[in-house]
Design a protein that fits this description.
Length: about 550
């Protein structure tokens, strides 16, 4: 049981990307089901994550803590795992691992998450919680049609009691009126408005002098409010990411807003009408665990045969439904058609990309990423790089990120695979992207990038290279990748040709492919990476190699 001291909505923030818990709880169940969840199994679990390519360097100093951080948070809080008396997956957890429509499983569990609960008990210093946070956030988005991220952060997080819903609605209305009348720049207006709300939320702490935070000895009010604002930003970001995992909301990355997918409004209205807003089994952990782990509750529109038939006929009018079809068969038909439609949309996108019809859009999206002006820059970098690689040259270019039902980027690739894998028949190429910079870039990306490349070599049994892209390349990464060109390590399948490039240099390569008088071919790609091998063997140090391969990249199509 965790004690909650929060004055705003409490939600789990780990893992940051909900889909990443799926392979991890599957591994947990496969190897540790029936065992006690203790330091021994936690250490073994982290070792297994490393072997299975899920481990990205986090938690190396305290792997047992890292294991608890991965499993005790969202997987347990959302009812996917049971850790006492022994480890097991709940029915909901088994469905998450095995179901084709994982977004529907996420939705059911999010709608049941509540505070208070046997897992999360508010302290005497916390807000008076009585809420299912995700259910009420869905309701808030549906009420307004669209909510800005700032509105979710400043006001949505104050919805700690569902009975205060109308109060929060009025706060947002007043904020929008004030914003429309604002004559100073928005950044200043937002900062002043946020500080006023924080002063109100934490008035009791400020009045009693409880303004010292865990991270510092500074007990000033300004530092206290700055820390609380940062925490709220993390909570709001987690809320949006987990709502997105249901496939029911759209994110405007430029406008930084969230809205219900138009085709999904009927489904949202259904559960908003039929799902009980009251928390359940607050003081009975056994009943709560059984309730939370139930894979069939709460009821969704797709559980209603008549409404599901109507939805299939509306979205896929050419499909003939047999009267003898069971509800599960109808769900399978609906899932099949959604998948076919998504694949068709992505196929059409690829055709438009290969014809350079989206060149300007791809370029402008990279500019927005470099300006850090999009809501989820890491996701957009991964998606846009996939588009650029598809346009750049031939081959089968596969993005490992998750797409929603309409071909929009939904979440980044799972941790046990490369972001993008390119198959050029005679050789392969992995593409890894990150927004990380500095030493953190080397710590989180250096070793996993090499493992992902080795995995592709092993699975395809042919030569493979890696392109590593980031806004800025850390010197430690340059040194590491240079050394791997020369080190014959059997664990990584021999030497590893990994070329790190700043995003601006990669952009120049994309522009050159557009301006070229011919269509670039796989041989041009392979020539570039083989040139990297030549430079690594002919230069005296990593700086010479890096400068040389960067110049090669800037002129990669020069014959």
């Amino acid at each position: 049981m965790a004690r909650i001291d929060s004055k705003v909505i409490f939600v789990t923030t780990s893992p940051r990307t909900p889909a990443k818990m799926i392979p991890e709880i599957e591994l947990l169940n496969t190897h540790f089901a029936g065992q006690k969840w203790n330091t021994k199994t936690q250490l073994a679990f982290m070792e297994l994550l490393k072997e299975e390519n899920f481990f990205n360097g986090e938690g190396a100093n305290d792997p047992a803590f890292s294991a608890r951080d991965r499993i005790n948070r969202a997987p347990k809080s959302l009812g996917f795992v049971v850790l006492s008396p022994v480890i097991s997956l709940t029915p909901a957890g088994l469905e998450l691992v095995n179901s084709r429509r994982k977004d529907e499983i996420f939705l059911r569990q999010l709608l049941k998450f509540q505070v208070p609960s046997p897992f999360h008990k508010p302290s005497a210093n916390s807000a008076d919680f009585w809420v299912r946070p995700y259910l009420e956030l869905f309701r808030l988005v549906r009420h307004f049609g669209s909510l800005k991220f700032d509105e979710v952060m400043i006001f949505g997080l104050q919805l700690v009691d569902y009975r205060e819903f109308e109060t929060i609605v009025e706060k947002i209305n007043q904020f929008r009126i004030a914003k429309a009348q604002n004559e100073v720049n928005y950044k200043k207006f937002r900062a002043e408005y946020l500080e006023a709300e924080l002063q109100q939320i934490y008035s009791a702490d400020i009045a009693s002098g409880k303004t010292k935070t865990r991270q510092t000895n500074d007990d000033s009010i300004s530092k206290f409010l700055k820390t609380k604002a940062s925490n709220m930003r993390d909570y709001a970001d987690a809320c949006v990411r987990y709502l997105r995992a249901t496939g029911l909301v759209n994110i405007s990355h430029i406008g930084k807003s969230i809205s219900i997918v138009p085709e999904k409004i009927q489904e949202v209205d259904y559960f908003l009408e039929h799902t009980n807003r009251e928390p359940h089994f607050i003081d009975n952990e056994k009943q709560y665990v059984a309730y939370l782990g139930n894979a069939e509750t709460p009821a969704l529109l797709t559980d209603n045969r008549e409404l599901l038939e109507q939805k299939i006929k509306t979205e896929f009018p050419k499909i003939k439904i047999e009267e003898t079809a069971t509800l599960q068969q109808l769900k399978d038909i609906f899932a099949d058609e959604l998948e076919k439609r998504k694949e068709q949309i992505i196929t059409e996108q690829v055709m438009a990309i290969k014809d350079y019809r989206l060149f300007d859009d791809i370029n402008s999206t990279f500019d927005q990423i470099l300006a850090n002006s999009l809501y989820d820059n890491p996701l957009m970098l991964e998606w846009n790089t996939w588009r650029a690689m598809t346009m750049l040259d031939g081959g089968n270019i596969k993005a490992n990120l998750k797409f929603d039902d309409f071909g929009n980027p939904m979440s980044t690739a799972q941790g046990n695979m490369a972001d993008i894998v390119c198959d050029y028949e005679d050789f392969g190429l992995t593409v890894e992207v990150t927004m990380q910079g500095g030493q953190r870039q080397y710590e989180t990306e250096g070793e996993p990038v090499t493992r992902h490349l080795a995995k592709v070599k092993r699975e395809t049994n042919k030569p493979a290279y890696c392109l590593f892209i980031a806004p800025n390349i850390n010197e430690a990464c340059v040194a590491h990748f240079y050394a791997l060109h020369k080190m014959n390590i059997s664990y990584y399948g021999g030497t590893s040709t990994i070329v790190p490039l700043p995003l601006t240099v990669f952009l120049k390569m994309v522009e050159d492919s557009h301006k070229a008088s011919y269509v670039p071919e796989p041989r041009h790609v392979q020539r570039f990476f083989e040139r990297s091998n030549e430079l690594a063997n002919s230069t005296d140090n990593e700086k010479e190699w890096y400068n040389g391969i960067t110049q090669e990249a800037l002129n990669w199509l020069t014959e």
